[in-house]
Amino acid sequence: MAEEKKSSGMFAVLAALGANVLVAISKFIGFGLSGSAAMLNESIHSVVDCGNQILLLFGDRRSRQASSNLHQFGEARAKYFFSMIVATFLFFGGGVIGVMEAYDKLVHPAHSVENPWIVIGILLIGMLIEGSSLRVAFKEIAELNTEKLPIFKFLHESRHSEILVIFAEDLCAIIGLILALLGTALTMITGNPMFDAISGLMIGLLLMAAAIFLTREFYSLIVGERVTDSDLVKILRPFERSEIERVINVRTVHLGPTEILIAAKIDLVNELVLEDYEIVNQIEAEIRRSLPDKKCYIYIEIDEFDEHYQR
After folding, report:
1. 310 within domain boundaries
2. What's the pTM?
3. What are the residue ranges of helices labelled H in the chain?
């Protein structure tokens, strides 16, 4: 349980929240001093990110609710629900607002960027803070990625929605800051404020693209994904025993990042040394030993195989 808490991915959320509060304050100061469209978009981006972390923390709290008569397997999927809200309302909403503001600057290019060196300084400080937050996210990913998968493969297969949000958020923050820095520098060099507006537009589009990617991932998690290939191998191994004639089927679904529902139907041999319930108990115990970082709900049914059985 201590290991689960250590590797839950929530430390990255807390680190990102602290970083984004500081960055948001500095960016709004920069926007007030400069009038930069890119800086305004970056300010909106940071406020969105703060909202992200608050919702993820609330979702984590809800996911720890004990089982009840209504929610008999607990509320572990609350993390997926609140991650979906983050992706749709905050990421996408923040991106739309940013695009609208940047478009207004493009069609009215008379705006100017004042005190550009202050803006550049704030952006560089923001990159340092966001970089430290991204480093924490990488550390959390390393702890969760016990199979040493390539990072994007791990993020696609991981059932930890909060670490996916934080990684996407921190990565977008770094890219957004680079775009804002580039737009400010080009505006300062050329005197053309259109570069600032274009960089603001690209930041808004970046947020919207991240929202679409995250929404697709979280939709699949909310609907219900089976366990990963490596966990499935661990689940199937205990069924490889002489008392079992045939494993008719095994079905799994993630109820949350660390909670699994396992349902199996097996056909036993005719002559048994052990009672059938003893065989089932041994299989369940072995599955739980092979998945110490997961809470498993296991239901095994004994049946006779029928190839014409209609499921």
Report:
1. no
2. 0.76
3. 2-6, 10-34, 37-63, 78-85, 93-107, 116-144, 151-157, 161-190, 194-223, 229-236, 276-290
